[in-house]
Each structure stands twice: as C-alpha cells, then as structure tokens.
Amino acid sequence: MTQPPIDVSDFGMDTISMSGSLATKLQAIRDGGFSQVMLSARDVAGHDGGLEAAAKLVRDSGLRVSGFQVLRDFEGLSGHLHDYKIDVAKSMLEMCKAVGSKLLLVCSSTSTHATTDLDAMARDLRKLAMLALPLGIKVAFEGLSWGRTVNEFPQAWDLVCRADAPNLGLALDSFHAFATKTPLEELEDLDPDRIFFVQLADFMWQEIRSVEERITTARHFRVFPGEGVHSEQLAHFVTALDRLGYRGDYSFEVFNDDYQQMQPITVAQRAWRSAVWLQDGVLRRSVPLPGQMRLKSRG
Amino acid sequence: MSSIREALADSPNPLQLDGIEFVEYATSKPQALGQVLEVMGFRPVARHRSREVLLYRQGDMNVIVNAHEPPGETPCISAIALRVRDAASAYQKVIAKGGWAVPTKVEVMELNIPAIHGVGSSRIYFVDRYTEFSIYDVDFVPIPTVDQKPPALAGMHWFGVVQYVGLDRINDWIEFYGELFGFQVTPAETHFGVLHAGRILRSPCGKFFVQLIEPLPDLPDDESPERFERVGIGAADIPAAMTELRQRGVTFVDSHGTGSEARGAITETWLGGVWFELVHDAR
Fold first, then answer.
1. Shared-domain flag, residues B124 and B188
2. Residue A256 — left, alpha, or beta (φ > 0 → left; ψ -120 to 50 → alpha)?
3. Domain CATH for B244
4. Position A221 in a domain
5. Interface test with chain A among B172, B179, B199, B224, by most A beta carbons within 10 Å
6. Are residues B230 and B113 in the same domain?
7. How far B212 CA sits from the closest chain A CA (Å)?
8. Contact list, A136 vs chain B (CB under 8 Å)
9. Is the model's pTM score more than 0.90?
10. A8-43, pLDDT tens digit by residue?
C-alpha cells in the first residue's frame, strides 16, 4: 500500500478497536497509514509466543508505542487488596516496558472497596509513579466517567496534583468528558505539560440517561471522531487542547461491537478518515506540529 | 500513634542513612578489573564463600567484584550498598513507597541482605552491620596474610556516584532519590570536581552525593542506557593523590594547565568503561 498523502503522525489507534491477533492488528494499523499504536495488556498477555515474541512483533512493526493500557481499580485500597493491586501494577509495568511503551494508562477506581479519601488515593498514585520511574515509564491517570470518586477530568487533575510526581500526569478521554457533560472550559485550567495522553472517541446518541447506559455505551457503542453526533464538541475539545499547548499523542479509543466484526483494515481506514478530519479539517495542520522529541530507534 | 509515624516519615533522614558500605562491579573479567583496582590503591582482602566474588578495600572504601553471572566483559557498577540504622526497617519503608524488591538468592548460612532495584539493572542494598562486625565476616573468607584494613592512599574516601539518566529524566530521578531515601537536590550551580554537568543530590547523612547527568540531546536512548556510570573518590589534597596514583601507573586526563587539579581530576578509562573521578573534599 502506498503511503497516504497526509501525515497524521499525531494520531494513533488503540488495538482494542479491532479484532484479531496482535500481528493482524499491528499490520492493519500500519497499512491504514498510522505510525503509532496504543497497546492493550490483553494483546500481549494472550499472545501465543509469550511476552518476548509479542515485544518483537511490536518492534518489527515499526509502529511507535504511544501507551499501554489499562490498570484498573488501583487507588484507594488497603491491606491485602492494596498489596494485590501493587502486584498487578508491577506485572503491567514489566509488560509495558517489554513492549517499548513509555506510558501506562491508569483509570480511576470503580471499586466499592476503595476509600474516598483523596490523600490516600494520591499516596497510592504517587507510589505507582515511583514503581514506574526506574523503568522509564510515565503514568497517565484518567477519570473514568463511572469512577467511584474520580469520574470527571477536573477531579482526576486534582488527584494528579495532590500526588505530585514528575512522571505522573493526566490522560483525557473525550468520551468520558462528553458523557458527564463536563464543561470543556475546564480544560483551560490544565497544565499542558502534565497532560500525558489524549484518547478520542464519539458515540451515536445525544443523551446518556444513567450510569449503566454510560458503561454500556462506553464499552460497545463508541465510534471514531467524525462518525458520531458530537463532532462539534470533539473539534472544540481538540482545538482547546491545541490552544492550551498540548503537543502529545492522540489515540482513538473506540470500543465498538460492530468494528469487532469487520475486517481490521476496514476499521483502520475508518480511523484514518477520522485522523484526516481532525488533522486537516479541525486543527488545519498542513504540516504536523513538532511533537515531543521522539528518539526511539526503530528496528 | 499515627502522629509518631508521621513525624518519623517526615524526618530529613528517614532511613538513618550513614554513607556507602560498598560498591559492586559485575564483570566476566574479574582479574583485569582487580588489576585496575589495585593500581587505584585497593587491595584484595577476602573471597566470597560460595561464589566468584572478591572483596577489595582501602581505608573505608569497599569494592566487590562480582563475576557470578556477569552481564559482560566491560565492568559495570551493579550495586551500591547503603549503610542504614536498621536494614529491615529501611527496606520495608522503601518498598512501601514504591521500591521494587529484589528477590534474594542466598546459600546456607549466608546473609540475606535486602535490596531494591536501582537504575538500569543495578541494585541498592541496605546494610546495618558495619560497626562492631561486618557483613563480610559472614559471607567472605579473608585472604591469608593480607592486611584486612589496608590504609587509603592520600586519605581517599567515597565522595559519591555518577548516574547517567535518560533525556528529560533528571526531575524523575530527583523525585526517586528524594522520596525513597531523603536525598536533597542541591542548587543548580552546585558542582564539585572538574566535570560540571547535570544535578547533584546530597544524601541525608551528608556523607556522599549522587550526580545525575543527561545524555546529549541527539543521542538515541538505546545507545546510552541509564546506569551508574562511575564513582567519585574524595581526597583532601588532589595533587598529592594524583602524584601517588601516577607513581602506581595511573594516568589522568590532561587538564591543559587550567589549574583545575586543586578541584579534581579524571583518570584514564580502563577495560572499555571503568574510570574514576577524584574530587577535592577536605573530610
């Protein structure tokens, strides 16, 4: 396949958006014209040849790994539950490093066993950041819209500030911001250098009436930016971040049952159209702005 | 009860750190490194009971040369042992804050010295037996007829360790050493010796320093992995120390008559990566 004419190197795909093996997904993402990928731990854990073979596959794909997801229900636990989650976190950090990712995505806890004490939650995130630090991994904390204590990005930002570690930052997901109708003006209060990752997705209906519907929509009915009914908000979201000075990665976090039944390359082509719309139509970058320094050697 | 714990946690020296107990190098060429150490004034004083590991010493400086499962020929600093008041307590505190425990593999009757992962593939040990008796009394057998306490050349002593870090990683590592051990970052203009780069952290006991140095911006990460790069050795009179070391065959990087010898000196590089930095330090 010839290289498409528009450079969308600021945008990448999440492997969770398509079905198939890790090799199939990487191939589709590359053939779709992307240069970066957000990996899921499941891709690696379920890989036939094991972690090393999965890591080699990722390296050989030539795709840059923008992140590794996702550590769930981490913060706010105590006693044996805390120890258990620390073990899970360490396992994920080791996989994250092995596949060449410098970023681990953590989403806010939904656990009823977790405390709502913000200082305790911040202490846990700080500990996670320390665990990640010698491995050269940054931790990006995201407010899940059905999180128990943290369910909007301003709260997630508050917790990141409380935890205060240089390798701990914020991950934003447009889906969650739209689902909770968090005012996008709140983006202006964020420090662009502490936004470590941005995930983009839309969905097909205007209203989400309950938390249950929010969860179902998030897990099964997301679509790529430009395919849903919040295109205007998405454009606003991305331009607001751009104006703020965010120059990091964007990735499409699209959980969609229909896409799981389509050929991966077809899904990648839909993602590509979305990237072109954002790059060319929204941000109007004929040439991509310089992102963060990317010095990782390929091959 | 909790207020007592809080007070302890906020102590400027939470682990009761008290200097460096030993520096360990790993290499598959232990004899070659041993020769380098001897030129630098160290003496082999003991052998490990069960592994291919040798202890070198001068004055208060202990160097362990570990050829047991070495990573390669070029010696690398594989561990640093820190003296603490209570090793078990220090280890637990550091683990609770996010240190990675290193599983220990000890033979029968050997000491289980707790360790966490440090930079790269290195380890940081915690040792609390360094006054009345030492860890070496248990795990090592003295080499017969050798002075077990060879004096240091020119009063040389540990000054610190230089750590290479990745690009934009200085602040990360400042946080790591501060959070886990209580190191304080010194002002940006603080420098010792002749190589002025990066940032310097002062140990909470005030007995040694860690210097963090970033790579040049155009160097790919993979070509300059994070690691302990070299040790710094303090001496009150650098020209005198240089004279003694030159007599033993050490050559130094030329300072081109800048008069910098009073502040410090850099030795030649041996074995593809071992070098020492001398730093003026009146202690």
1. no
2. beta
3. 3.10.180.10
4. yes
5. B172
6. no
7. 13
8. 166, 169, 226
9. yes
10. 899 999 999 999 999 999 999 999 999 999 999 999
